[in-house]
Amino acid sequence: MANLLGKITNLDFLKIKKGGSVLGVDIGTSAVKIVQIKKEKGTVVLENYGALALGPYAGMEVGQSTNLSTKKIVEAIRDLIRESGISTKTAAIAIPLKNTMISSMEMPDVGEKQLETMVPIEARKHIPVPMSEVALNFWTIPKPEPKTISAPVKNNKKNTIEVLIAAIHNDSINKYQEIEKGAELEPELFEIEIFSTIRSLIGSDTDPIMVIDIGAGVTKLATVEYGVLRGSHIINKGSQDISRALAASLGIDIAKAEEIKRDPSVLDEESRKQFVEVVSFPLGRIFSEANSVLLDYQKKHNKTVSKVIFSGGGVLVPGLFDLAKETFKIDIVMGDPFARLESPVFLDKTLKTIGPEFSVAIGLALEAI
Length: 369
Known about the structure:
A hairpin with a 2-residue loop joins β10 (219-225) and β11. By secondary structure, this protein is an alpha/beta fold. It has a five-stranded mixed beta sheet. It has a five-stranded mixed beta sheet with strand order 11-10-9-12-13, sandwiched between helices. A three-stranded antiparallel beta sheet has the order 5-7-6. 37% of the residues lie in helices and 25% in strands. It contains eleven helices and 13 strands. The chain is globular. α5 (193-201) packs across α11, α6 (239-250) packs across α7 (254-262) and α6 (239-250) runs antiparallel to α8.
Protein backbone atom coordinates (compact mmCIF):
# COMPACT_ATOMS: atom_id res chain seq x y z
CA MET A 1 0.00 0.00 0.00
CA ALA A 2 2.77 2.49 0.86
CA ASN A 3 4.11 2.70 -2.72
CA LEU A 4 0.70 3.47 -4.18
CA LEU A 5 0.02 6.10 -1.55
CA GLY A 6 3.33 7.80 -2.13
CA LYS A 7 2.28 8.60 -5.67
CA ILE A 8 -0.63 10.59 -4.36
CA THR A 9 0.65 12.56 -1.41
CA ASN A 10 4.40 12.89 -1.57
CA LEU A 11 7.06 13.11 -4.20
CA ASP A 12 9.93 11.45 -2.34
CA PHE A 13 10.54 9.00 -5.19
CA LEU A 14 10.81 11.75 -7.81
CA LYS A 15 14.15 11.35 -9.59
CA ILE A 16 15.39 14.73 -10.76
CA LYS A 17 18.80 15.13 -12.31
CA LYS A 18 21.15 17.23 -10.25
CA GLY A 19 20.60 20.85 -11.18
CA GLY A 20 17.34 19.96 -12.96
CA SER A 21 14.22 22.10 -12.90
CA VAL A 22 10.71 21.18 -11.82
CA LEU A 23 7.22 22.60 -12.36
CA GLY A 24 4.44 23.08 -9.85
CA VAL A 25 1.09 23.06 -11.70
CA ASP A 26 -2.05 24.35 -10.00
CA ILE A 27 -5.21 23.81 -12.06
CA GLY A 28 -7.90 25.98 -10.49
CA THR A 29 -11.43 26.61 -11.73
CA SER A 30 -10.66 30.15 -12.93
CA ALA A 31 -6.97 29.92 -13.88
CA VAL A 32 -3.94 27.67 -14.28
CA LYS A 33 -0.81 28.73 -12.39
CA ILE A 34 2.67 27.29 -12.94
CA VAL A 35 6.02 27.88 -11.25
CA GLN A 36 9.38 26.58 -12.46
CA ILE A 37 12.19 26.32 -9.90
CA LYS A 38 15.58 24.68 -9.55
CA LYS A 39 18.11 24.13 -6.79
CA GLU A 40 21.51 25.80 -6.98
CA LYS A 41 24.14 25.40 -4.27
CA GLY A 42 21.53 24.67 -1.64
CA THR A 43 19.26 27.53 -2.68
CA VAL A 44 15.89 27.17 -4.39
CA VAL A 45 15.78 29.58 -7.33
CA LEU A 46 12.74 30.88 -9.19
CA GLU A 47 13.24 30.36 -12.93
CA ASN A 48 9.83 31.14 -14.37
CA TYR A 49 6.17 31.50 -13.53
CA GLY A 50 2.91 32.19 -15.29
CA ALA A 51 -0.87 32.20 -15.02
CA LEU A 52 -3.62 31.85 -17.59
CA ALA A 53 -7.34 32.59 -17.10
CA LEU A 54 -9.66 29.69 -17.97
CA GLY A 55 -12.82 31.74 -18.49
CA PRO A 56 -12.19 32.34 -22.23
CA TYR A 57 -11.78 28.59 -22.77
CA ALA A 58 -15.36 28.17 -21.55
CA GLY A 59 -16.77 31.21 -23.38
CA MET A 60 -16.87 33.11 -20.06
CA GLU A 61 -15.20 36.20 -18.66
CA VAL A 62 -11.76 36.24 -17.03
CA GLY A 63 -11.98 35.45 -13.32
CA GLN A 64 -15.12 33.33 -13.51
CA SER A 65 -15.21 29.77 -12.21
CA THR A 66 -15.39 27.14 -14.96
CA ASN A 67 -16.04 23.43 -15.34
CA LEU A 68 -13.86 22.61 -18.34
CA SER A 69 -13.44 19.28 -20.06
CA THR A 70 -10.11 17.50 -19.76
CA LYS A 71 -9.38 18.39 -23.39
CA LYS A 72 -9.84 22.11 -22.73
CA ILE A 73 -7.68 22.00 -19.58
CA VAL A 74 -4.90 20.30 -21.54
CA GLU A 75 -5.19 22.98 -24.22
CA ALA A 76 -4.87 25.73 -21.60
CA ILE A 77 -1.83 24.14 -19.95
CA ARG A 78 -0.08 23.70 -23.27
CA ASP A 79 -0.82 27.33 -24.18
CA LEU A 80 0.51 28.56 -20.83
CA ILE A 81 3.70 26.50 -21.07
CA ARG A 82 4.33 27.78 -24.58
CA GLU A 83 3.57 31.44 -23.80
CA SER A 84 5.58 31.41 -20.54
CA GLY A 85 8.65 29.86 -22.13
CA ILE A 86 8.73 27.00 -19.62
CA SER A 87 11.77 24.82 -20.28
CA THR A 88 11.04 21.62 -18.33
CA LYS A 89 8.42 18.89 -18.45
CA THR A 90 9.10 17.45 -14.98
CA ALA A 91 6.00 18.38 -13.04
CA ALA A 92 3.98 18.00 -9.87
CA ILE A 93 0.22 18.57 -10.13
CA ALA A 94 -2.29 19.52 -7.43
CA ILE A 95 -5.54 17.68 -6.89
CA PRO A 96 -8.37 19.92 -5.62
CA LEU A 97 -9.47 19.56 -2.01
CA LYS A 98 -13.09 19.09 -3.14
CA ASN A 99 -12.05 15.82 -4.86
CA THR A 100 -10.67 14.35 -1.64
CA MET A 101 -11.78 13.16 1.77
CA ILE A 102 -9.63 14.10 4.76
CA SER A 103 -10.32 13.07 8.33
CA SER A 104 -8.58 12.13 11.56
CA MET A 105 -9.16 9.16 13.80
CA GLU A 106 -7.81 7.64 16.98
CA MET A 107 -5.82 4.42 16.71
CA PRO A 108 -3.87 2.18 19.12
CA ASP A 109 -0.14 2.93 19.19
CA VAL A 110 0.98 -0.31 17.55
CA GLY A 111 3.72 0.87 15.22
CA GLU A 112 3.82 1.88 11.56
CA LYS A 113 3.80 -1.62 10.10
CA GLN A 114 0.65 -2.73 11.91
CA LEU A 115 -1.02 0.60 11.19
CA GLU A 116 -0.66 -0.04 7.45
CA THR A 117 -2.97 -3.02 7.94
CA MET A 118 -5.33 -1.49 10.50
CA VAL A 119 -5.88 2.01 9.06
CA PRO A 120 -7.71 0.94 5.84
CA ILE A 121 -10.09 -1.16 7.93
CA GLU A 122 -10.85 1.65 10.38
CA ALA A 123 -10.97 4.23 7.57
CA ARG A 124 -14.12 2.58 6.19
CA LYS A 125 -16.04 4.32 8.99
CA HIS A 126 -14.91 7.72 7.71
CA ILE A 127 -14.98 7.28 3.92
CA PRO A 128 -18.48 6.94 2.38
CA VAL A 129 -17.40 4.93 -0.68
CA PRO A 130 -15.89 1.43 -1.09
CA MET A 131 -12.17 1.40 -0.29
CA SER A 132 -11.52 -0.21 -3.69
CA GLU A 133 -12.61 3.07 -5.32
CA VAL A 134 -10.04 5.31 -3.62
CA ALA A 135 -6.31 5.69 -3.03
CA LEU A 136 -5.68 6.12 0.68
CA ASN A 137 -2.80 7.56 2.65
CA PHE A 138 -2.29 8.27 6.34
CA TRP A 139 0.06 10.14 8.65
CA THR A 140 0.63 9.74 12.36
CA ILE A 141 0.05 13.13 13.98
CA PRO A 142 2.96 13.84 16.35
CA LYS A 143 2.11 14.58 19.95
CA PRO A 144 3.29 18.08 20.93
CA GLU A 145 6.04 18.30 23.49
CA PRO A 146 5.18 19.97 26.80
CA LYS A 147 6.11 23.65 26.64
CA THR A 148 7.71 23.58 30.08
CA ILE A 149 9.32 20.83 32.11
CA SER A 150 7.64 22.03 35.30
CA ALA A 151 4.15 21.67 33.79
CA PRO A 152 3.99 18.38 31.87
CA VAL A 153 0.94 17.63 29.77
CA LYS A 154 -1.13 14.80 31.15
CA ASN A 155 -1.95 12.16 28.60
CA ASN A 156 -4.77 9.89 29.67
CA LYS A 157 -4.59 8.03 26.35
CA LYS A 158 -0.89 7.26 26.25
CA ASN A 159 -1.48 4.03 24.32
CA THR A 160 -3.32 5.74 21.49
CA ILE A 161 -2.29 8.02 18.65
CA GLU A 162 -4.12 10.32 16.26
CA VAL A 163 -3.93 9.46 12.57
CA LEU A 164 -4.74 11.75 9.66
CA ILE A 165 -6.22 9.96 6.65
CA ALA A 166 -6.62 11.29 3.11
CA ALA A 167 -8.44 9.55 0.28
CA ILE A 168 -8.70 10.45 -3.40
CA HIS A 169 -11.25 8.82 -5.67
CA ASN A 170 -9.71 6.77 -8.47
CA ASP A 171 -11.73 8.72 -11.05
CA SER A 172 -9.99 11.94 -9.96
CA ILE A 173 -6.57 10.31 -10.18
CA ASN A 174 -7.37 9.02 -13.67
CA LYS A 175 -8.52 12.48 -14.77
CA TYR A 176 -5.32 14.20 -13.67
CA GLN A 177 -3.17 11.46 -15.13
CA GLU A 178 -4.97 12.05 -18.43
CA ILE A 179 -4.35 15.80 -18.14
CA GLU A 180 -0.67 15.24 -17.38
CA LYS A 181 -0.28 12.90 -20.35
CA GLY A 182 -2.13 15.23 -22.71
CA ALA A 183 0.01 18.19 -21.66
CA GLU A 184 3.14 16.03 -22.15
CA LEU A 185 4.25 16.49 -18.54
CA GLU A 186 6.15 13.86 -16.59
CA PRO A 187 6.34 11.95 -14.33
CA GLU A 188 2.93 11.23 -12.81
CA LEU A 189 3.08 13.01 -9.45
CA PHE A 190 0.18 14.43 -7.48
CA GLU A 191 -0.53 16.10 -4.14
CA ILE A 192 -3.72 17.33 -2.49
CA GLU A 193 -3.62 21.12 -2.88
CA ILE A 194 -4.11 21.96 0.79
CA PHE A 195 -0.80 20.28 1.70
CA SER A 196 0.99 22.29 -0.99
CA THR A 197 -0.49 25.52 0.38
CA ILE A 198 0.62 24.71 3.92
CA ARG A 199 4.16 23.94 2.76
CA SER A 200 4.56 27.24 0.93
CA LEU A 201 3.06 29.48 3.63
CA ILE A 202 3.90 28.08 7.05
CA GLY A 203 7.46 28.00 8.31
CA SER A 204 8.56 26.98 11.78
CA ASP A 205 5.37 28.08 13.57
CA THR A 206 4.12 25.53 16.08
CA ASP A 207 1.06 27.43 17.32
CA PRO A 208 -2.36 26.74 15.76
CA ILE A 209 -2.80 28.71 12.52
CA MET A 210 -5.72 29.01 10.12
CA VAL A 211 -5.08 29.31 6.37
CA ILE A 212 -7.91 30.83 4.32
CA ASP A 213 -7.59 30.30 0.57
CA ILE A 214 -10.16 32.27 -1.42
CA GLY A 215 -10.61 30.98 -4.95
CA ALA A 216 -13.10 31.97 -7.64
CA GLY A 217 -15.83 29.49 -6.75
CA VAL A 218 -14.97 28.24 -3.26
CA THR A 219 -12.96 29.17 -0.18
CA LYS A 220 -10.79 26.52 1.49
CA LEU A 221 -9.89 26.54 5.17
CA ALA A 222 -7.06 24.64 6.82
CA THR A 223 -6.26 24.56 10.52
CA VAL A 224 -2.60 23.73 11.09
CA GLU A 225 -0.63 22.99 14.24
CA TYR A 226 3.06 22.04 14.41
CA GLY A 227 3.01 22.20 10.60
CA VAL A 228 0.41 19.38 10.51
CA LEU A 229 -3.08 19.69 9.02
CA ARG A 230 -5.59 19.30 11.85
CA GLY A 231 -8.77 20.17 10.00
CA SER A 232 -10.11 21.37 6.63
CA HIS A 233 -13.35 22.94 5.49
CA ILE A 234 -14.84 24.20 2.22
CA ILE A 235 -17.06 27.27 1.96
CA ASN A 236 -19.09 27.33 -1.26
CA LYS A 237 -18.47 31.03 -1.87
CA GLY A 238 -15.55 32.77 -3.54
CA SER A 239 -14.32 35.85 -5.32
CA GLN A 240 -16.73 35.47 -8.24
CA ASP A 241 -19.53 36.22 -5.77
CA ILE A 242 -17.88 39.61 -5.23
CA SER A 243 -17.77 40.23 -8.99
CA ARG A 244 -21.44 39.34 -9.39
CA ALA A 245 -22.42 41.61 -6.50
CA LEU A 246 -20.45 44.50 -8.02
CA ALA A 247 -21.97 43.94 -11.45
CA ALA A 248 -25.51 43.99 -10.05
CA SER A 249 -24.94 46.96 -7.75
CA LEU A 250 -23.03 49.19 -10.17
CA GLY A 251 -24.99 48.18 -13.27
CA ILE A 252 -21.94 46.89 -15.16
CA ASP A 253 -21.03 43.63 -16.88
CA ILE A 254 -18.97 40.88 -15.24
CA ALA A 255 -15.83 41.72 -17.22
CA LYS A 256 -15.85 45.30 -15.94
CA ALA A 257 -16.68 44.11 -12.42
CA GLU A 258 -13.61 41.85 -12.48
CA GLU A 259 -11.42 44.84 -13.37
CA ILE A 260 -12.92 47.08 -10.69
CA LYS A 261 -12.66 44.32 -8.09
CA ARG A 262 -8.87 44.49 -8.40
CA ASP A 263 -8.62 48.27 -8.92
CA PRO A 264 -11.53 50.43 -7.69
CA SER A 265 -9.49 53.62 -8.15
CA VAL A 266 -11.16 54.11 -11.55
CA LEU A 267 -14.47 54.77 -9.79
CA ASP A 268 -15.67 58.19 -8.66
CA GLU A 269 -15.81 58.97 -4.94
CA GLU A 270 -19.45 57.99 -4.49
CA SER A 271 -19.00 54.71 -6.36
CA ARG A 272 -15.90 53.88 -4.29
CA LYS A 273 -17.97 54.15 -1.13
CA GLN A 274 -20.54 51.87 -2.73
CA PHE A 275 -17.71 49.48 -3.68
CA VAL A 276 -16.69 49.06 -0.04
CA GLU A 277 -20.26 48.31 1.02
CA VAL A 278 -20.88 45.84 -1.81
CA VAL A 279 -17.60 43.96 -1.34
CA SER A 280 -18.11 43.73 2.44
CA PHE A 281 -21.29 41.65 2.08
CA PRO A 282 -19.94 38.51 0.30
CA LEU A 283 -16.62 38.77 2.14
CA GLY A 284 -18.47 39.11 5.43
CA ARG A 285 -20.38 35.89 4.76
CA ILE A 286 -17.13 34.04 4.00
CA PHE A 287 -15.38 35.45 7.06
CA SER A 288 -18.33 34.71 9.33
CA GLU A 289 -18.31 31.02 8.40
CA ALA A 290 -14.51 30.87 8.65
CA ASN A 291 -14.60 32.48 12.08
CA SER A 292 -17.16 29.91 13.24
CA VAL A 293 -14.82 27.10 12.14
CA LEU A 294 -11.94 28.82 13.94
CA LEU A 295 -13.91 29.23 17.18
CA ASP A 296 -15.12 25.61 17.03
CA TYR A 297 -11.51 24.43 16.70
CA GLN A 298 -10.42 26.53 19.68
CA LYS A 299 -13.29 25.21 21.81
CA LYS A 300 -12.74 21.57 20.83
CA HIS A 301 -8.98 21.61 21.44
CA ASN A 302 -8.87 24.27 24.17
CA LYS A 303 -6.24 26.17 22.19
CA THR A 304 -6.00 29.65 20.71
CA VAL A 305 -5.42 30.11 16.99
CA SER A 306 -2.52 32.58 16.82
CA LYS A 307 -3.07 34.03 13.34
CA VAL A 308 -4.84 33.76 10.00
CA ILE A 309 -2.85 33.51 6.76
CA PHE A 310 -4.64 34.47 3.55
CA SER A 311 -4.00 32.83 0.21
CA GLY A 312 -5.57 32.55 -3.25
CA GLY A 313 -6.38 35.05 -5.98
CA GLY A 314 -9.52 36.22 -4.19
CA VAL A 315 -7.57 37.80 -1.33
CA LEU A 316 -6.26 40.60 -3.57
CA VAL A 317 -9.52 42.55 -3.28
CA PRO A 318 -8.94 46.03 -1.77
CA GLY A 319 -10.43 46.35 1.71
CA LEU A 320 -10.24 42.62 2.48
CA PHE A 321 -7.42 43.01 4.98
CA ASP A 322 -9.24 45.60 7.11
CA LEU A 323 -12.47 43.61 7.14
CA ALA A 324 -10.56 40.47 8.15
CA LYS A 325 -8.97 42.28 11.10
CA GLU A 326 -12.39 43.39 12.31
CA THR A 327 -13.82 39.88 12.02
CA PHE A 328 -11.11 37.66 13.46
CA LYS A 329 -9.56 39.96 16.10
CA ILE A 330 -6.18 38.21 15.77
CA ASP A 331 -3.03 38.63 13.68
CA ILE A 332 -3.82 38.70 9.94
CA VAL A 333 -1.07 37.88 7.43
CA MET A 334 -1.05 37.90 3.63
CA GLY A 335 0.67 34.78 2.27
CA ASP A 336 4.03 35.36 0.58
CA PRO A 337 5.15 32.01 -0.90
CA PHE A 338 7.72 33.61 -3.24
CA ALA A 339 9.67 34.60 -0.11
CA ARG A 340 10.84 30.96 0.04
CA LEU A 341 12.54 31.30 -3.33
CA GLU A 342 15.53 33.30 -4.54
CA SER A 343 14.44 35.70 -7.27
CA PRO A 344 15.63 38.92 -8.96
CA VAL A 345 15.33 41.99 -6.71
CA PHE A 346 13.45 43.96 -9.35
CA LEU A 347 10.61 41.42 -9.12
CA ASP A 348 10.16 41.75 -5.34
CA LYS A 349 7.17 44.11 -5.45
CA THR A 350 5.39 42.16 -8.21
CA LEU A 351 5.93 38.76 -6.58
CA LYS A 352 4.76 40.00 -3.20
CA THR A 353 1.57 41.32 -4.80
CA ILE A 354 0.71 38.20 -6.80
CA GLY A 355 2.16 35.74 -4.27
CA PRO A 356 -1.13 34.54 -2.73
CA GLU A 357 -2.25 33.25 -6.15
CA PHE A 358 0.79 30.98 -6.45
CA SER A 359 0.80 29.30 -3.02
CA VAL A 360 -0.27 25.89 -4.33
CA ALA A 361 2.07 25.88 -7.35
CA ILE A 362 5.08 26.91 -5.24
CA GLY A 363 4.30 24.36 -2.53
CA LEU A 364 4.13 21.61 -5.15
CA ALA A 365 7.44 22.60 -6.72
CA LEU A 366 9.14 22.84 -3.31
CA GLU A 367 8.08 19.30 -2.43
CA ALA A 368 9.35 18.03 -5.77
CA ILE A 369 12.71 19.76 -5.61
